[in-house]
Write a structure and sequence with these properties.
This protein has three domains: about 10-120, Acyl-CoA dehydrogenase/oxidase, N-terminal domain (Butyryl-Coa Dehydrogenase, subunit A, domain 1), CATH 1.10.540; about 125-250, Butyryl-CoA Dehydrogenase, subunit A, domain 2, CATH 2.40.110; about 255-400, Butyryl-CoA Dehydrogenase, subunit A, domain 3 (Up-down Bundle), CATH 1.20.140.10. The longest helix is centred in the C-terminal third of the chain and has 34 residues, at about 255-290. It is α+β, with helices and mostly antiparallel strands. The protein has a four-stranded antiparallel β-sheet, covered by helices on one side. About 50% of the residues lie in helices and about 15% in strands. The chain is built from twelve helices and eleven strands.
């Protein structure tokens, strides 16, 4: 048994500094511009690809860290630069998580590199779960996948919504779509499918104008008689048939196509929220040390000093929950008390609260766009909504600690 430590190792520190420098020198200078334009930051993605930051090789190295912390460190630093741009860079990893969490080794080897492409031929990926009538309630998806045995093809019809990178056709985009194969089985009758770039019938519906994370593309994905080969069913048909047969016999199953991805991604989403919170805290701290009122720096007033102390404490507490969940996930530890949901819930709500306090500390300056804290506040709010709302996270935790399926 190794000694308990909170120290990062040399590799983690170097990676953290490398990504921080990219966030400071490449992302932050254009963050306000892309927030205003509400466009995908293709030049930033290209620069990230040029240096190897946006690549399957980088992501695989982050996943390979036995502590599970490197990916969280990267997520926090990118989001410290700009959460919207960070999501443009990291949104592809959602599709990757869907493939890795549900696919066979052969499918992972085939599709994951195609989610990124190369620096000379950039690709994206999107993970399509949510629907207009099924956001938090992913067990009631209406998107259907029907097997055409004669052609060994799956035919998919439905509409997905709130999809990061959804429907983009400027570059090849790999869509991972969760669909219902047997609606009577609800979540246990669902499966994940890879829809290769350029597949006929897949198109972008409405592109959403958002309150925050504006540099991240969010849109509807429309699937109209989309046909994909049988091998695009992640995990394979034999495994799906066996799982559904067990479900029909009343046997319990913990495997759900959407939830297996969310369980892996929620702590990393929490790390993104931490980046926003830390950015707002650091800015507020420096502002409070420099801003003079009534003849002294405002940090010399307890009303401001205590606020900053609480901001720092809440951020550090949230980070510990995130790092614990990342370590548990990487080392195969079962989330018995909803630890993944705890980390995302705490970090998301801390980000909203910290950015609100930052606005209060800056006063009127905090409310105007010339200062960045109002943007951080707008960006933070989504972290109490996507990847499971705060209410859903509390439900997951309550069910885990009670052993009761609370409705």
């Amino acid at each position: 048994m190794g000694d308990f430590t909170l120290d990062l190792n040399e590799d983690q520190l170097q990676m953290q500094q490398w990504v921080h420098d990219f966030a400071a020198n490449v992302i932050r200078p254009v963050a306000a511009e892309y927030d205003e334009k509400e466009e995908t930051p293709w030049d930033v993605i290209q620069e990230a690809a040029n240096i190897g930051l946006y690549s399957w090789e980088a992501v695989s190295n982050w996943f390979a860290d036995p502590t599970g912390l490197t990916f969280a460190l990267v997520s926090e630093e990118l989001s410290w630069g700009c959460a919207g741009i960070a999501l443009s860079l990291m949104g592809t990893t959602l599709g990757v998580s869907g493939i890795v969490g549900n696919g066979t080794p052969e499918q992972i080897a085939e599709w994951v590199p195609q989610c990124f492409g190369t620096a000379d031929d950039i690709h994206l990926s999107a993970f399509a779960v949510s629907e207009p009538d099924a956001g938090s309630d992913v067990s009631n998806l209406r998107t259907r996948a029907v097997y055409d045995e004669a052609k060994d093809e799956w035919v998919i019809n439905g509409t997905k919504t709130w999809i990061t990178n959804g429907g983009i056709d400027k570059v090849p985009t790999v869509h991972v779509v969760v669909a219902s194969v047997d609606p009577e089985l609800k979540g246990r009758g669902q499966a994940s499918f890879v829809v290769p770039p350029g597949t006929p019938g897949l198109s972008m519906g409405q592109k959403f104008k958002k309150m925050g994370i504006k540099a991240s593309h969010t849109a509807e994905v429309v699937l109209d008689d989309v046909r994909v080969p049988g091998h695009c069913l992640l995990g394979g048909k034999e495994k799906l048939d066996a799982r559904m047969a067990r479900a029909r016999e009343g046997q319990s199953s913990r495997v759900q196509a959407a939830m297996s991805t969310f369980e892996a991604s929620r702590p990393l989403v929490g790390a993104q929220a931490l980046g926003i919170a830390r950015a707002a805290y650091e800015y507020s701290l420096e502002y409070a040390k420099e801003r003079k009122a009534f003849g002294r720096a405002i940090i010399e007033n307890q009303g401001i000093a205590f606020k900053l102390a609480d901001m720092k404490m809440e951020i550090d507490a949230a980070r510990l929950l995130v790092h614990r969940a990342c370590w548990m996930g990487r080392n195969g530890k079962e989330f018995r008390a909803g630890e993944g949901s705890m980390s995302k819930l705490k970090a998301g709500e801390v980000a909203v609260w910290v950015t609100e306090q930052a606005i209060q500390i800056l006063g009127g300056y905090g409310y105007v766009r010339e200062y960045p804290v109002e943007k951080w506040h707008r960006d933070s709010k989504i972290y109490t909504i996507f990847e499971g709302t705060s209410e859903i996270q509390r439900l997951v935790i309550a069910r885990a600690i009670s052993g009761i399926r609370i409705p």
